[in-house]
């Protein structure tokens, strides 16, 4: 069974492709939705097309499925229109599937199930990554604030951190907020960090 | 507060929804409006059909196509409120536009001559011109097909129509993937501002009161939520009045400019709002009257005759089967009954009829109204033909008789 993944986020497509391979599918093609991707898909003649629901190229792909002779007529998106739970899950996960006619539902459902799980996993990965980035940014802010305190108050590093932490505790604020306020104030006062 | 989510696309004609939220009209009506930005019409449609949002900013023909089950699983939709009238522009890449009448103002003013010039330019082009449309079931595509047919150009044979979301048109033109596109504003103006193309036709000159975006709901949901609808529609009507007022255009453009909405500079949004269109980069703007209407002339009223005009075009271009059941179901998508109920007592003029002969008015005309005085603007098609909703078959026969050049 030939599966095409239309996606321009390399990472997301990889997450999905890996999962499909582990599940025993090996005829998988990733097609970025740019330029002549529709012609490329037509030559590839996949049985199933998976795509990110938010992709602007969905309209283009649907148009192709509506007029394409090479691909025959599509059944429709989301495989079985009567399965509301699956459709809901697919929309929530951000995956949309187009199935080319002649493919039995039983063979497609596991692909879509897997795609939903992988898309969800990707979303979680993305969220974790964002969190890690924020944590890193916070640490940099605190380091800058510490440097200001060390320089202006002649403190060593542990003492500067203790001062930041106790100030935050006394004011019921996050350390990073106190650090940010300190950096702003220092720059307003013309201090060099 | 009643929460309502509405999916929309980044277009100037999403203005009424954005004003309803940002200027507090929805809140005053006890509605917490959540606007969900989407990039493609397919996504807006799916979010609506599968209940992730309660309503969607939608191409009027798409609402009808979904209801008739064209190219997709059928789902009964209901459109009780039009979000705007007119607002599209056809932009052609500068090299192609150069083969048309050199005066952009003349092109716009005389769509019949422009269509013939276009037909001639196809012959000069080294290959079939590729024109971007936003969806096969869009008013833009239907108007483009109609306009081309007048000059004997068959849109399925003589040009290549390529579907792209409106926000990607300018990039596709820059990359040379399309020679032109017809889309809602601001995208035509963006192509001009970036010096890539020229606006060669305006929707308002092809059909002076063309139907454009509707607010679409699922038919079963709208029946079950009468009380909410009766609060939402008057709030939207107030927002539409605000959007139509020239005094608010600068503020409206600033709202639309925000990244969560249209996300383009206000300067590119103002032309459609004010009807001051720059047709060619570097030239002074040209006044295009009625380029886009939000509320005046009962612009929000869903004339069932307009749904039938769309149906007639779907049949004309072999996208829908001509049969009585399809005709009735298409007309029923436009819910003038719900509009009447929800806006009764609002003081807004209410048309006395739900159908009219489209294209029959050449001057502003006072018409029968239940409340207030209602004057309708000229609504002619560029070729002077009128559409009688009582005789769709006769109308189609007349169109088929257009001589192929």
TrEMBL record, chain A:
Keywords in alphabetical order: Phosphoprotein
Protein name per Swiss-Prot or TrEMBL: ANTAR domain-containing protein
The ANTAR domain, residue ranges: 122-183
The organism of origin for this protein: Sphingomonas crocodyli
Annotated positions of the 4-aspartylphosphate modification: 52
GO terms of molecular function: RNA binding
InterPro entries: ANTAR (IPR005561), CheY-like_superfamily (IPR011006), Sig_transdc_resp-reg_antiterm (IPR008327), Sig_transdc_resp-reg_receiver (IPR001789), WH-like_DNA-bd_sf (IPR036388)
Keyword Zinc-finger: no
Coiled coil spans: none
Pfam name, any one: Response_reg
PROSITE patterns xref list: ANTAR, RESPONSE_REGULATORY
Residues in Response regulatory domain copies: 2-116
Annotated GO biological process: phosphorelay signal transduction system
UniProtKB/TrEMBL annotation, chain B:
InterPro entries in the cross-refs: NrtA/CpmA_ABC-bd_dom
Keyword annotations from UniProtKB, A to Z: Cell inner membrane, Cell membrane, Membrane, Transport
Chief place where the protein resides: membrane
Keyword Nucleotide-binding tagged: no
Coiled-coil region: none
Superkingdom, natural source: Bacteria
Gene Ontology CC annotations of this record: endomembrane system
Pfam families given in the database record: NMT1_2
Localization terms from the record: Endomembrane system
PANTHER family: ALIPHATIC SULFONATES-BINDING PROTEIN-RELATED, BLL4572 PROTEIN
Name of this chain's protein: Nitrate transporter
Species this protein is from: Sphingomonas crocodyli
């Amino acid at each position: 069974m030939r599966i095409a993944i239309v996606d321009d986020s390399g990472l997301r497509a990889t997450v999905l492709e890996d999962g499909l391979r582990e599940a025993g599918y090996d005829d998988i093609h990733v097609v970025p939705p740019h330029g002549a991707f529709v012609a490329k898909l037509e030559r590839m003649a996949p049985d199933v097309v998976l795509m990110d629901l938010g992709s602007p190229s969905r309209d283009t792909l649907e148009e192709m499925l509506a007029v394409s002779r090479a691909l025959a007529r599509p059944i429709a998106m989301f495989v079985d229109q009567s399965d509301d739970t699956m459709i809901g899950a697919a929309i929530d996960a951000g995956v949309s599937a187009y199935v080319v006619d002649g493919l039995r539902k039983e063979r497609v459902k596991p692909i879509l199930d897997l795609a939903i799980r992988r898309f969800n996993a990707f979303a979680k990965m993305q969220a974790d990554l964002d969190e890690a980035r924020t944590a890193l940014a916070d640490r940099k802010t605190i380091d800058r604030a510490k440097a200001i305190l060390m320089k202006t108050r002649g403190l060593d590093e542990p003492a500067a951190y203790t001062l930041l932490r106790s100030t935050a505790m006394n004011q019921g604020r996050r350390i990073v907020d106190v650090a940010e306020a300190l950096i702003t104030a220092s720059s307003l006062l013309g201090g060099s960090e | 507060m009643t929460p309502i989510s509405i999916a929309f696309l980044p277009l100037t004609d999403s203005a009424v929804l954005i004003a309803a939220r940002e200027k507090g009209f929805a809140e005053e009506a006890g509605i917490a409006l959540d606007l969900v930005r989407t990039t493609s019409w397919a996504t807006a449609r799916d979010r609506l059909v599968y209940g992730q949002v309660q309503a969607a900013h939608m191409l009027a023909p798409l609402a009808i196509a979904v209801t008739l089950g064209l190219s997709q699983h059928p789902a009964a939709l209901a459109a009780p409120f039009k979000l705007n009238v007119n607002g599209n522009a056809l932009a052609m890449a500068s090299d192609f536009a150069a083969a048309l009448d050199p005066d952009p103002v003349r092109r716009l003013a005389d769509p019949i001559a422009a269509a013939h010039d276009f037909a001639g330019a196809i012959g000069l082009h080294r290959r079939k011109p590729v024109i971007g449309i936003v969806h096969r079931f869009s008013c833009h595509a239907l108007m483009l097909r109609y306009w081309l047919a007048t000059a004997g150009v068959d849109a399925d044979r003589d040009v290549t129509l390529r579907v792209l979301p409106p926000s990607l048109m300018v990039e596709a033109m820059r990359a040379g993937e399309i020679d032109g596109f017809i889309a809602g504003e601001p995208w035509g103006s963006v192509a001009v501002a970036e010096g890539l193309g020229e606006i060669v036709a305006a929707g308002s000159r092809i059909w002076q009161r063309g139907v454009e975006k509707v607010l679409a709901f699922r038919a079963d949901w709208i029946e079950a939520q009468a009380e909410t609808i009766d609060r939402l529609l008057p709030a939207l009507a107030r927002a539409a009045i605000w959007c139509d007022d020239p005094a608010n255009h600068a503020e409206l453009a600033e709202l639309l400019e925000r990244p969560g909405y249209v996300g383009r500079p206000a300067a590119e949004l103002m032309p459609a709002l004010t009807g001051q269109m720059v047709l060619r980069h570097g030239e002074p703007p040209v006044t295009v009257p009625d380029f886009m209407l939000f509320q005046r002339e009962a612009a929000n009223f869903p004339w069932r005759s307009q749904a039938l005009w769309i149906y007639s075009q779907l049949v004309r271009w072999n996208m829908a089967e001509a049969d009585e059941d399809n005709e009735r179901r298409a007309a029923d998508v436009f819910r003038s009954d719900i509009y009447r109920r929800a806006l009764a007592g609002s003081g807004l003029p209410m048309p006395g009829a739900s159908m009219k002969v489209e294209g029959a008015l050449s001057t502003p005309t006072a018409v029968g109204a239940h409340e207030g005085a209602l004057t309708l603007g000229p609504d002619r098609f560029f070729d002077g033909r009128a559409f009688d909703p009582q005789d769709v078959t006769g109308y189609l026969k007349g169109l088929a008789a257009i001589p192929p050049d």
